[in-house]
Amino acid sequence: MNLLSPAPAVHAVRVKKKIRHPWSKQGYPAGYTIDGVEGKTLTLARGETYLFDVQVPDIHPFYFTQSAAGGFSPETGLLSLDEVAPRSLGPAPVTNETIRFTVSEDAPNTFFYQCAIHKYMGGKVVVVERSSNHVATGDAAAPIDALANAQGRGVVLAPTHGVVERVSPPYAVDIYIAEDDNHDVFAPISGQLLRVESQTGEFVGTQFQVPYEKTERVFLTFQGEVQVVLWLEVGKPKYITNNVRFSVEAGAWVRAGDRIGEILLGSRSGLVLSHPATITAQPGQRVRGGEHIIGQWPRSSQTSHVWKW
Q1: Are 163 and 107 in a shared domain?
Q2: Alpha-carbon gap, residue 127 to 131, rounded angstroms
Q3: What's the pTM value of the predicted model, to 2 decimals?
Q4: Residues 105 and 165 reside in one and the same domain
Q5: Which residues pair with 30 in a beta bridge?
Q6: 157-204: pLDDT as tens digits
Q7: Whether residue 124 is found in the same domain as residue 181
Q8: Residue 174's closest CA among 191, 154, 160, 186?
Q9: What is the CATH number of the domain that holds 216?
Q10: Buried b / exposed e across 208-240, counting CB within 10 Å, b at 16+?
């Protein structure tokens, strides 16, 4: 099967005004986003190499540090960028370049990415062993790259933020997206986006359980080592148009966790997996799109069923 090459994914680092950032009420009013997610918790494996495309203003140099706050101030005893830079756990602070960051074998279990000048702009980094078989639950971060090769298993990631509302074992899961959740949409697996299809329907508030044929939905079919169908239920008043926006088109190749679009207002998402992939998420579990693992499959297997809609 023609799959993506194993080269490291490039993670986009940007700056935006804090809205849903974990430190939205602390420090500088803007913060970093990683792949479109504010203050995203990264889970990195020891000895692995990661690429970060840093494109931020010159006043916000990005770096890795053991300081939860970052920056410099009289409180920290660090009074200039020159004093902060040597404390980086990786490359020196940067603003407009792609950096290669290898997690050292002696790296602390938890550290942070931050601005070398301003405080509380970044997020947490959790380090796992390369052979880790940890599966994320609750608000914990998922070691995506480590798990993709751990014990010969592949992973299916949550396509959106939200709460797991329903699981139909072993192949289907529904996620409720509240209006105050992040509404970005992420690729659940690595592979090719085969097609994007729409289902017209009436507007029904997403707080009601209604037959899916009555609601407006968009279906995206991904083909990797297994096939995954992602559906997005459009919870919108009729006067809103262009309520689902995608940054990729049918035929594009994506990596698990890539941001591929956004959906407006409160909505639902769901996945239907082909055999032998199975759902591991549980009802009531809060997940972060592009980070939390909600399904797995044996890497040695081949697709044996094709879903048709």
Answers
A1: no
A2: 12
A3: 0.52
A4: no
A5: 17
A6: 999 988 898 898 778 999 988 777 778 899 999 889 999 988 776 554
A7: no
A8: 160
A9: 2.70.70.10
A10: eeeeeeebbbbbbbbbbbbbbbbbbbbbbeeee
